[in-house]
Amino acid sequence: MANRHPSPQRAETPDQARDRTAELSADIETTGYYPQVVAAGLSDALADEPVLAYVLHHEPTFDRDEVRRHMTVLTLTPTRLVLAHTDEHPADDVLPEPYTSTTTEAVPLRTVDSVVVTRTVPAATAVGDVTSEDAAEALLTIGWGAVRRLDLEPAACSDPNCEADHGYTGSATADDFSLRVSAAADGGSAVQRLLGFARELSAVTSRPR
């Protein structure tokens, strides 16, 4: 007998409607860089939270005569910023054969206090209406108070002949995480993705807490 009183459908929340977990999984698979390893580490860190935004950065590094690759994945959930970094290593005292290591960190959004974006735009295009598509390079620096960079230099006064010791002057800036991408090395779309992620992160961290 048909149910004359079907249960009401549960409406999707905005976060559920924007869930990009499947898209992230597909992009990790497409890179071909230990996709099962990267996905497993990220899945544990996400703990079933939906993915609202993400960015992947896959690049090689040179280790003596060998090329090593590594991947960084930034994901944004409704409550956290999740970072995952996977490296490949040669055989050593830890393991007698090549291996990978994955490190994840989950940062509550309420603790993110600094989102710094530096974009590089060629002077030839820096006229008229400049958009994010004109950026040749982008650097995203995120701070949540775990690491701070201290830059010091000798202090001086306005007297050019003064030989007194004025001590040091400097600045302390948040430097928990930085990621740089360029159109030349990573493609223009990679720059756009990083800038898009920065916009999403800036939006959620600017809301009242």
UniProtKB/TrEMBL annotation:
Region of interest: Disordered: 1-20
InterPro entries: DUF5998
Protein name as annotated: DUF5998 family protein
Species the sequence originates in: Mumia xiangluensis
